[in-house]
Amino acid sequence: MTTLPDRRLLLVHAHPDDESIGTGSTMAHYAAAGAHVTLVTCTLGEEGEIHVPALAQLAAAEADQLGGFRIGELTAACAALGVSDHRFLGGAGRYRDSGMMGMPTNGHPRAFWAADLDEAAGQLLDVIREVRPQVMVTYDPNGFYGHPDHIQAHRVAMRAHELATAEGVAPAKVYWTALPRTVLEAGMSHLTASSDNPFDGVDSIDDLPFGTPDDQIAARIDGTGQHAAKEAAMRAHATQIPADSWLYAIAGNFGAEFMGVEYFTLAVGERGPGGGPNGWEDDLFAGIDVTAPQWAVRLPEQPGHDLADPASAGDGPQRAAATAGLR
Ligand SMILES: [Zn+2]
């Protein structure tokens, strides 16, 4: 018998490191609180830039081993976040990092950008059937900032939600990651004086692909108690985030708030009770009766997608997560 905690959260991300940068505090917050946190990563991030000179030869244009290396980085990041249930969509390596929009890598035979939507959504649906999350988190239709794999992750997640709705197993709420305009403005003005300003040359936040009016934000998750876990998870992605990145510098200046607080818009479902001038929820499960019979995990798992069975799981962390996390 598989028993899972009452509260179950599913996050769908594009590349290793997105989970830590975008939702690391939320993941650590819920994992620490005893919720079941499932991370589905859609690609291995093969096309990422490499910020560790000694590992430069792993690059896509050379040995093309970065994806495999990043499995180890993601495993370490998940350990830092306290998350043991991690899978790659369709198994590790099924979908490849598509690279930036318009690059030839968009046309790779395994590029996630070119994935068959229903096939990929079906793979995510298998996870939804198994774990029965009440809440799913992914990106907005622009993938937060326009990367093709982020846009595709959004499409796959939303299509999987449609398919799950037809089966009566859909998460009650779907959230999209977001950054309130007031928080973005505060960050930008703070960084103006910095020598390492990631917004250098940006005159107005209207020129940025993200920044959501505060009244459209639905939830503010305060994971400030977990900011150290989030930073440790980010540091686990050393090939992607330089040790002297502005991300760490700004964290030092803003303190726990920058690392620890994450925001979301609500795309599907009913908003629960909240507070403050905008009525922001402080819990992604707000308003959901997680112990209602409809959320009982149906047992046993259906044959064919028993990811808790090591024999049917993929390699590496997926296999380890399946054995450690679900039994
Ligand atoms: Zn990404």
UniProtKB/TrEMBL annotation:
Cofactor dependence is on: Zn(2+)
Swiss-Prot/TrEMBL GO biological process terms: mycothiol biosynthetic process
Job of this protein:
Catalyzes the deacetylation of 1D-myo-inositol 2-acetamido-2-deoxy-alpha-D-glucopyranoside (GlcNAc-Ins) in the mycothiol biosynthesis pathway.
Give the EC number(s) listed in the UniProt record.
3.5.1.103
Which Gene3D superfamilies has this protein been placed in? LmbE-like (3.40.50.10320)
**Per UniProt, which keywords does this protein have?**
Hydrolase, Metal-binding, Zinc
Know the name of this protein? 1D-myo-inositol 2-acetamido-2-deoxy-alpha-D-glucopyranoside deacetylase
Q: Which family does it belong to?
A: Belongs to the MshB deacetylase family.
Report the cofactor remark.
Binds 1 zinc ion per subunit.
**Chain residue ranges for the region called Disordered:** 301-327
Residues the entry annotates as binding Zn(2+): H15, D18, H150
The catalytic activity, as recorded, is: 1D-myo-inositol 2-acetamido-2-deoxy-alpha-D-glucopyranoside + H2O = 1D-myo-inositol 2-amino-2-deoxy-alpha-D-glucopyranoside + acetate
SUPFAM superfamilies recorded for this chain?
A: LmbE-like
